[in-house]
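HUMAN: Can I see a protein plus its fold?

ASSISTANT:
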Amino acid sequence: MTYLNVEIKARCPNPAFVRNYLLDNNAEFKGTDEQTDTYFHVPNGRLKLREGKIENNLIYYERPDQPGPKNSHFKLIKVEDAAALKEALSKSLGVKTVVQKKREIYYIRNVKFHIDEVPGLGSFVEIEAGNILAGLSQEELRQQCDFYLQAFGIREEELAEFSYSDMLLDKISG
């Protein structure tokens, strides 16, 4: 089944402010995860294998490159043997890039929050309002994102247009 997230990624000059807001508003803290995302060459969308202590998934998603709230249609597959899957996908598709990050994971109802530290890129906050746990419309998910965008005081110039993989690839080539 394909799910829908309305997502925002933004540079985060003050991670402590976001963290305190979430904790003050009874967010459920899932933990801090050291994650490695391996992106593979695919003809459409993005395909990545996420390896961490909390999250281990193969994720396929289609999302436009634009700042601000954007729709992300995705498939999420739990992975039992990440090493073997990575080897098979690396040999068959080729590795596009690898992103390593430290990620704090929080939830308020159906909204997932990440406070990320990405070496070479800096600190970010992600807001993912999803219908995976709630029967909400695209417009309702967008309203949730807009609410937290305001609550965190995210400015327009802080909104990120691209994925971490694209930012790192651009940094390498630029």
About this structure: The chain has one domain: 3-173. The two ends are 38 Å apart (CA to CA).
